[in-house]
Design the sequence.
């Protein structure tokens, strides 16, 4: 595999005709699909091995075992444990229940995403029905599995066959989907954010219709804002309890804004960091401070050489209160490599029962899934003591080690490549 990767680094299409370059693009796409199929087979074998040789404690608790396997798959794919769980589920379904889809992926006839769509749309079916959907999809196409089919056509066909084979699947899907309703937030360009509500269809339509009707009424009264602007302002006003929706309301809940003193008071253009969002321009941060109902100034202390947040105004020595705030402000998102989920738990790196102290250096912010996974048998987390740095080393049951550094704070000089800096720090300390 390393040889193939080295050979691919030399491929740039030089010396080929344009027709040959297009052929190369197609072959490389097929190669990606074949690699995804091989990855699914290896993942399935790894799952079987882990379940066969798992410690007795994990065999008695299948949920903990699945969590441990998923987290290892996620780290190997440089993704979060949640994504690892999804990849594991897709791999097992392809290898065990969808032989035609898996074979087409191996031949490069469909992409990994389209194979995932077949898995997703048959997830609520019994194994026999899932295999029947797989067979029927293969019989419907000529010249290759699902040749010429787009994403929507593939998903619709798999879903329709499943509904016919098992009419109750629709009800189970609906019940499962409703149980997963949620609200999420993601950064958008230009200091905007997408706040998304995943709701049952009737509730979603009703919420949107209510905002639309109100916006049309306000526009008819002479408001000069656009319908979209009125709907957005009303959405925020109703959620935050603001009295006036004619202008975007000032924040009335606590938000975390980390910015250098020179940006706050001396007009510097050093970016700030808005907790739960990410980097924001200094001018926007100053405007946010000016328009907030209340703005509290809290001193944060960073290490001069590394820029790591090391202390803040606090006298408490548990992972509550200001000490927890410090970890959240320092780590920003889950500390596990490749996981950028929101921090839900502030916990010890080395467990307190193993002698780990309760303090900044031995603390980290984690999402719920990662914190539970590191407590499973076979996992180990340690702090590597380096001057001015809080390096966490996570060791999986297979012995693989993954290290992470907290992000640089606003106003510091972050390294061009954090991974290279981490490697250099570890080499310097032996």
Sequence:
């Amino acid at each position: 595999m390393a040889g193939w990767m080295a050979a691919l680094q030399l491929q740039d299409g030089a010396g080929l005709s344009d027709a040959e370059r297009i052929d190369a693009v197609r072959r490389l796409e097929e190669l990606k699909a074949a690699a995804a199929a091989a990855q699914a087979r290896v993942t399935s074998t790894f799952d079987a091995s882990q379940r066969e040789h798992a410690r007795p404690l994990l065999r008695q608790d299948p949920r903990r075992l699945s969590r441990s396997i998923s987290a290892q798959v996620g780290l190997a794919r440089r993704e979060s444990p949640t994504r690892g769980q999804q990849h594991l589920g897709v791999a097992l379904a392809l290898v065990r229940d969808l032989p035609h889809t898996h074979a087409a992926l191996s031949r490069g006839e469909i992409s990994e995403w389209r194979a995932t769509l077949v898995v997703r749309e048959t997830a609520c079916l019994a194994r026999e029905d899932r295999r029947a959907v797989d067979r029927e999809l293969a019989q419907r196409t000529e010249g290759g599995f699902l040749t010429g089919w787009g994403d929507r056509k593939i998903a619709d066909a798999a879903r329709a066959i499943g509904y016919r084979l098992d009419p109750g699947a629709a009800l189970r899907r609906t019940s499962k989907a409703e149980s997963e309703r949620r609200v999420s937030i993601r950064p958008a360009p230009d200091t905007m954010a997408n706040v998304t509500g995943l709701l049952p269809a009737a509730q979603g339509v009703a919420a949107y219709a209510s905002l639309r009707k109100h916006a049309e009424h306000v526009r008819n009264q002479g408001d000069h804002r656009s319908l979209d602007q009125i709907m957005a302002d009303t959405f925020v006003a109703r959620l935050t309890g603001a009295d006036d929706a004619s202008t975007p309301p000032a924040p009335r809940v606590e938000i975390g804004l980390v910015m250098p003193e020179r940006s706050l008071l001396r007009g510097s253009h050093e970016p700030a960091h808005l907790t739960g969002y990410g980097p924001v321009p200094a001018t926007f941060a100053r405007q946010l401070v000016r328009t907030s109902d209340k703005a509290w100034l809290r001193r944060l202390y960073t290490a001069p050489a590394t820029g790591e947040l090391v202390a803040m105004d606090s006298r408490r020595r548990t992972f509550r209160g200001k000490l927890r705030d410090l970890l959240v402000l320092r780590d920003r998102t889950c500390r596990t490599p490749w996981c950028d989920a929101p921090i839900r738990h502030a916990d010890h790196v080395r467990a307190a029962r193993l002698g780990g102290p309760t303090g900044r250096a031995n603390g980290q912010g984690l999402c719920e899934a990662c914190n539970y996974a590191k407590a499973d048998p076979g996992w180990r987390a340690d702090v590597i003591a380096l001057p001015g740095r809080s390096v966490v080393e996570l060791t999986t049951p297979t012995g693989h080690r993954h290290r992470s550094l907290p992000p640089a704070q606003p106003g510091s000089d972050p390294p061009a490549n954090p991974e290279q800096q981490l490697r250099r720090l570890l080499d310097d300390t032996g």
Summary: The CA atoms of residues 56 and 377 lie 10 Å apart.
